[in-house]
Every structure is written in structure tokens, then in C-alpha cells.
Design brief:
SDR_fam; NADP; Rossmann fold; 250 residues; globular; seven-stranded parallel beta sheet; SDR family oxidoreductase; Sc_DH/Rdtase_CS; alpha/beta; two-stranded parallel sheet; NAD(P)-bd_dom_sf
Length: 250
């Protein structure tokens, strides 16, 4: 994806983006990719040190916000923005457990972060975009929003909810020139998942389900986000871009 020339449809010059969960992993890669394409990026995370290293690597293009996405003050801060062109609604969590053993604390944790906070962050961003009459919202889904999986009942439920939210938002906001899509990755190698892949049995099980035969990388997801955020996707809304190596096609 070549976005180095001024005429490239992937350039985001003069655009303002906000990426949640930008301190590590997929969110960090998305913030870096959007900044490389010319966007001014508000990078949101709870750990200040992560944001400092991110901002220092992209002088003048990354604005660090140390915040908790579940905090009402964070939502108010979004709504106070004069302009917001792109939202990458990335924060989420998981705690795999057998369905009959899911604890209510786990249920509440995953629902609150994966669904409730995602809804409220998207709502706050959309209110800014409605006033300016344009925008692109990218909700971070998962291949698990399209299939089911053992020990992931709550996570699958929340990611299916994200797909429904994406479609409903897209239909309602299309007339205002606000596009809403999701990105649905497979297992991606991040600092969080890398120890999991060191288990040969788990690694082989994942690989066996991906027709392309290898684990996804954070840049694979970031490139998909860039496409949906950019003018190249001007007629794309209400869709889910699967970055899953064919997992859900089987």
C-alpha cells in the first residue's frame, strides 16, 4: 500500500484521527500507520510511558492522551473536539472460560469494555462528526464476531454485537457522510498473544485453522484500518473487513 505520494488515495493529510488502546499491539500499529499517512493522531492509552515513546517516534503527528475509555471525562473530552475525521475504536479484552464456568465478574468486565465503552466512544465521536458533516468510524471487531469458538462465548457475543452496532450506525449515519465499518482480525501476534503462541499445541491449532498458514501481524490490521479510514474507501460502509487469512471462509 503506497501512500507516500500526495495524490495517493490513502493519504490522510489534514485529517484528525483518534485511536483508543494505542499504547501497544494493534492500536499502536494503527496509530503509527495513520500518522505515517499524514494524519494528526490522538493516541489514547492508560500507560503514559507507552504513549511517550509512540509520540517521540512521530514528532508533531501524535498527541498523547492518558485516559481510561470507560471514564465519563474521556467521553466529554472527545465531544469537546472541534474536529474529528477518523475514530479507530480499538479497546477490548478477553478472558477465555468454558461457558458453564463463566464468572459474572468476567461477564461484566468483557461486556463493559467490549460493548458498552465501544458504543459510548463511537457515540461521542459521531456527535463531533455529525456537526462537521463527515467522518469514518472503524470499530475493532474480530473473526469471532462471525463464528463461534470453544471457551469464548462472552467474547464471541461481544464481537457479534460490534458487527450489529457497525451495521446499524452505518445505515443511520450514511446520509450525513459518516462511514462506519469494522475490521475483523484473526489471532494476531502482539506482546499479549506472543506467549500463547509459544505453546506448540495452541500454535498448531491456530495455524491449522488459517488457510494461509501463518499468524497475522499488527501491520496487517493497521493496513486494513488505513484503507477504511482513507478516501480509497469512500463507498464502503456497513461492512466488516476480515483480516483472518481465510479462517471464516472454511
Amino acid at each position: 500500500m503506497n501512500d507516500d505520494t500526495p495524490s495517493s488515495p490513502f493519504r490522510l493529510d489534514k485529517k484528525r484521527a483518534l485511536v483508543t488502546g494505542a499504547g501497544k499491539g494493534i492500536g499502536r500499529a494503527c496509530a503509527q500507520r495513520l500518522a505515517k499517512s499524514g494524519a494528526n493522531v490522538i493516541a489514547v492509552a492508560r500507560t503514559e510511558a507507552d504513549l511517550e515513546t509512540l509520540a517521540s517516534a512521530h514528532p508533531g503527528l501524535i498527541e498523547p492522551w492518558v485516559a481510561d475509555v470507560t471514564d465519563e471525562k474521556f467521553l466529554q473530552r472527545i465531544e469537546s473536539l472541534e474536529r474529528l475525521d477518523i475514530l479507530v475504536n480499538n479497546v477490548g479484552t478477553n478472558k477465555p472460560q468454558p461457558f458453564t464456568e463463566v464468572e459474572r465478574e468476567t461477564l461484566d468486565l468483557i461486556l463493559n469494555l467490549n460493548v458498552r465503552s465501544a458504543f459510548l466512544v463511537a457515540q461521542a465521536a459521531a456527535r463531533v462528526m455529525v456537526k462537521q458533516g463527515s467522518g469514518s468510524i472503524i470499530n475493532m471487531g474480530s473473526q469471532m464476531g462471525h463464528v463461534g469458538a470453544k471457551n469464548r462465548a462472552v467474547y464471541c457475543m461481544t464481537k457479534h454485537a460490534i458487527e450489529g452496532l457497525t451495521k446499524a450506525m452505518a445505515v443511520e449515519l450514511a446520509v450525513l457522510d459518516i462511514r462506519v465499518n469494522s475490521v475483523a482480525p484473526t489471532f494476531i501476534e502482539t506482546p499479549l498473544t506472543k506467549p500463547m503462541f509459544e505453546n506448540p499445541e495452541f500454535h498448531q491449532d491456530v495455524i491449522s485453522r488459517i488457510p494461509m498458514g501463518h499468524i497475522g501481524q499488527v501491520d496487517d490490521v493497521a493496513n486494513a484500518v488505513l484503507f477504511l479510514a482513507s478516501p480509497a474507501a469512500n463507498m464502503v460502509t456497513g461492512d466488516s473487513l476480515k483480516v483472518d487469512g481465510g479462517w471464516t471462509a472454511v
